[in-house]
Amino acid sequence: MLKSLDLGISVFYILGILAIGLWAGISHRRKSKASAAGEYFLAGKSLKWPAIGLALFATNISTVHLVSLAQSGFDSGLLNGNFEWMAAFTLILLALFFVPFYIRSGVATLPDFLEKRYDRSSRDWLTIISIVSAIIIHIAFSMLAGGIVLQTLFGLNMYVSVIVICIITAIYTIIGGLKAVVVTESIQTVVLLTGACIISYAAFSKMGGWEPMTQVLKDNGQMDKLSMLRPHGDSSGMAWYTVFLGYPILGIWYWCADQTIVQRVLGAKDENHARVGPLFCGFIKILPVFIFVLPGLFAYTLAKSGYLDVSSLGVDSNGQVNSKGIYTLMITQLLPSGLVGVLVAALLSGLMSQVSGALNSISTMVSYDVYQRYRPQASDKQLIMAGKISAGLALVFSLGLLPLLNRYESIFNGLNDIIAHIAPPITCVFLLGVFWKGASAASAKLTLWIGSALGVIVFAINKLYPETTIGHIPFMMMAFYLFCTCVVMQVGFSKLYPVKHTAESAMLYWKTPWEPLEGAGWKGIGNYKVLSVLLLLLTGVLYYVFR
User: Fold this and answer.
1) Which domains does the chain have, with CATH numbers?
2) What transmembrane ranges does the database entry give (predicted)?
């Protein structure tokens, strides 16, 4: 249970974020000359690269990551850090190949972009998938992780605590719009990183450094926990080739084609800010392996050494330590009063930033992609109201999903398991649409429909009949197989139903792979091409070290 000082810090932080969010959103809209809807949903396209990068990171790193990456570090070592470092490659793709079209086409949503490249049917389907995925992946899973933390620390009912925090988050998000979301996310990123660094240092210090940790791993025959790239047949199901084949399918959807993430880029001041922001986020994404995953590995060695009492966690169905609560256990056992409050604030930052970002993207899609379609003459006031109502409904629906999602023993694996079955057709349609002139509207529509249905069927078979061959395929490879199937489908349908470009769609694909690099960037190290090369080199070196 938290002491009064820690509880006071947590409450002060929540109220502070609420006040800042309301002030930022309302004051910005009053000062701006842009349309009310443009201000509310896209911050009047005024965002600069630091805010974009920090907001991207904050929207991505939720309480799910703080809790479940530590859990994965405890269970399997650095392995799941691949989801963080591989993100650098997909963020480079976003900056180099997708951002120019998104900015130049002036779209407010990614479904809107898909209509410009293909047709209205593709837009409608992506809207549905994007809203559903935002509710399940970005909101419900974050609520679940946050609820576990708050229940452990406060002793409160998980659902009551989550409802209170989410209502507070919804207030400034619904009232303030994207500007409030980005400003609060920037603050929350700093708080989150500070808290993560504190717990990392505490675990490192308690263990006595790197060498004592590696010695414990050696003594227990667990040196493979330090490896990011595992051999074929590894018990985790994530051999090195599954990471390099499967992650891009998940990552391109998540970072390049998911409204909740990309909306921060759509609000950029100009193309250069829109390109550099994701690259800045890519550099920050190097940190989670060291400040989110590694503390979990330290917790494992601390437990083996008797410095961390994990008996209160109990055991799971496999007889292993139920590591879901390992992060909160580290907070309460390794930190003094006062710092515990800072860590709770960091955890709340992760929950609030993820929920606020997802609610804002849902409201944007419902307003522009659904409401405006049936009410084309709708005023800005009506669009904003439709967005606010949809955000409130999404929050209620997400709360109803918590008991179902809580059945996953690993939150992070559950999250990625769902993404692996959602992402393939969307990744396929976006990639072929941007890089292949021959991708037709009919092929995109059919690929989205059939590919999504196939993903649902495979997911259902996997859960209902886990003993089948499909049930034994790792989710990374399943994503790759589904993607290859979707590519074959779209190419085949494009030959059957040849493309008929409009004047607009003819401008929304790259004529050559080098064309994206022709855009003028800033001079010096701030140039997007220079930053892309530096990020590639840094990530490559890290993979070599932790291979």
Assistant:
1) 4-224+258-408+514-545 (1.20.1730.10)
2) 6-26, 47-65, 85-104, 125-150, 156-175, 187-204, 238-257, 278-303, 339-362, 383-406, 448-465, 471-493, 528-546
